[in-house]
Amino acid sequence: MPVPEIPGRRERRRVQTLDHVATTAMQLFEAQGYDATTMEQIALRADVAKGTLYNHFATKEAVLAHWIHLELAADTARLAELVGAPGGFEARLARLLEASAEWSRRHRAYLLGYFRFRFLNIESELDGGGDPEGRPRDLIGLFALLIRDAQQEGSLRADLAPDHLAQLLHHLYFGALMRWLTLPGLELGEEFAAIVEVFVDGTRAGAKAARRKRA
After folding, report:
1. Of 146, 35, 63, 36, which is closest to residue 97 (Cα–Cα)?
2. Residue 7 sits in the same domain as residue 66
3. Beta carbons within 8 Å of 165's beta carbon, 6+ residues apart
4. Mean pLDDT, each 10-residue run in order, the chain (215 residues)
5. Same domain, 32 and 101
6. Rg (alpha carbons) of the chain, rounded to whole number
7. What distance in Å separates the CA atoms of residue 196 and residue 88, rounded to the nearest whole number?
8. Same domain, residue pair 38 and 79
9. C-alpha closest to that of 208 among 139, 159, 153
10. Which residues span the domain enclosing 178?
11. Distance CA 115, CA 56 (A)
12. H helices present in the chain, as ranges
């Protein structure tokens, strides 16, 4: 009699299948282009039944999004080192965004499809940027960590929570990315430099009181 599969093992196998399919699909995207690749080709190359593929991923965008999330998760540890590097908030944020810009430039061809998928699944955006043990697992989590440090140092206003400010910063980040993706001739580094200036000016400690005096 076969040994019943425990839920933990079943979940690990499911995750392994998702990762395998997404990695295989990315190889096809790189070899023949994203638009030219079909779900049937992905199933064939990954050696999974077409029905199994659609049970895991309803669309090709979902496959792409899973691969990008794998990439971002793997990159979070490297980016976290930039958050802890010496320097003030503005310099550390600029370094973090430049590292993100390097990744975005390499994967530009896939980003609009990825963002389209995220908009259609907006509920997932309401989740936080950290795991249950408080470690950042995405860019928003890294923003929050960087902001929390700056608030404790007294360089950023502390009347708003780090997670709140991180979400606002991420909106600026996303806006800069979309401008770069949709408007010809823009340089992503310059777009990110603009949001650093806007965010720092708006959140610097004492800025709120100064604006009230001017009013």
Report:
1. 146
2. no
3. 143, 144, 147, 156, 203
4. 56 90 96 94 96 93 92 80 84 92 92 87 52 59 93 93 95 95 96 95 72 48
5. no
6. 20
7. 12
8. no
9. 159
10. 61-214
11. 19
12. 7-32, 39-46, 50-56, 60-83, 89-106, 108-120, 139-153, 162-182, 188-203, 207-214
Inter-CA distances, 74 with 37, 69, 71, 78, Å:
25, 8, 5, 8
Q: What is the pTM of this model?
A: 0.79
How would you label 73-97 residue by residue, b for 16+ Cβ within 10 Å and e otherwise?
A: eeebeebbebbeeeeebbebbbbbb
Looking at the fold, whether 52 and 66 belong to one and the same domain comes out as: no
> What are the structure tokens assigned to 68, written together?
């990008």
Give CA angle at 23 (22, 28), nearest 5°.
Answer: 95
**Any idea which residue has 């940027």 for tokens?**
129
